[in-house]
Amino acid sequence: MSMYRPEKADELIKTAKAMVAPGKGVLAIDESNGTCNKRFEANGIDATEEKRRQYRELLLTTPDLEKYVSGAILFDETIRQSAADGTSFIDVMHKRGQVVGIKVDTGAKPLAGSDGEKVTEGLDGLRERLGEYYEMGARFAKWRAVITIDTAKGLPTRGCIEANAHALARYAALCQEAGLVPMIEPEVLIDGEHDIATCEQVTEEGLVEVFDQLHRQNVMLEGVILKTSMVISSKGASNRAGVDEVADRTVETLLRTVPAALGGVVFLSGGQGVEESTAHLNAMHKRHGDRLPWPLTFSYARAIQGPALEYWKGEPGNVEEAQKRALKRARFNGLASQGEYSADMESA
After folding, report:
1. What is the tally of structural domains in the chain?
2. Does the pLDDT value for residue 270 go beyond 60?
3. 192-248 per-position pLDDT tens digit
């Protein structure tokens, strides 16, 4: 069987390379309105559309952010918004040479016939939505699947792993048909009490299934970015693994499961602390940088946004300092993506 090449194959490969350019990663600001509002309320900020617009503008217009951030994943509301001076956020990013991304799934819903597992929806009408986003100027998309570990219940089940992998592959094929690089995000949740060995086993099983399904749906791997969780102890684990063990197990798992042809791998921070997620990425490059067949970098949300949001508080007078805090995290993660970060930098 000959390898299928999408019509926009060359463009897809070029986009994927730009997203994981050396020293850069992808900023995730694609929280749903509900999630964004919850974070605003926790920081005493009015949960309104205008405040969400102001916050996304704060992040997207941070001076020098493009040095460390190749692009950003936007929410549907955000991709249609503009800065205060009338420049659309799409144009703000294009002028900085950044790639515009868009979250396209419609959320994780209860998986019928399962005890507490979820499957991500959004395939219906996706071809048409992708076409609109491409015309608007987006060049990559994101779809998130969530896998829950609960050893007492025997979770995850094969049914959940297969259903989510199949949806990710169908989504990826539709993206490439439309000229958008699919960012596929099979997230193993950090919640629970399981140890790192259990996370490693589940992560490996999930990734094997995802790449099997991508092959079945004729998805061109050179034009795909994997957004994955790290192999890490759960939040409630009695004995949490250290930075080096997380780095070692994560890289070994990826080397066993992810084809070398893939366009790149980016990590979600997934409930880790701000400095913790940077340290883990740095250790992977320090310890295994010469073994990696694909670019390995970040696609963090709270690990870059968190310090900025906490300082901003919705106040116009706090924007400049909040931007400096976002830039600091982006710069540190850019350094970590090349193994050049040090914890000493945090106090400098």
Report:
1. 1
2. yes
3. 999 999 999 999 999 999 999 999 999 999 999 999 999 999 999 999 999 999 999
8-state DSSP, 172:
H
Task: For residue 2, tell me if it sits in a domain.
Answer: no
Strand partners, 109: 119
Range of the domain at 136: 9-347
- Alpha-carbon torsion, ordered 90, 94, 99, 100, to 10 deg: 0
Distance CA 205, CA 203 (A): 6
Q: From the candidates 185, 187, 200, 209, which is the catalytic residue?
A: 185
C-alpha to C-alpha distance for 10 and 211, rounded to whole angstroms: 21
227 is catalytic: yes
Q: Which of 8, 103, 142, 227 is catalytic?
A: 227
300: left (phi over 0), alpha (psi -120 to 50) or beta: beta
285: in domain: yes
CATH code for position 166: 3.20.20.70
**pTM of the prediction?**
0.97
- HSE-CB at 91 with a 13 A cutoff on CA atoms is 8
**Cβ within 8 Å of residue 188, ≥6 positions away:** 147, 149, 199, 202, 203, 206, 229
pLDDT at 157: 98
Looking up tokens 């929280």, which residue turns up?
31
Predicted confidence band of residue 348 (pLDDT cuts 50, 70, 90): confident
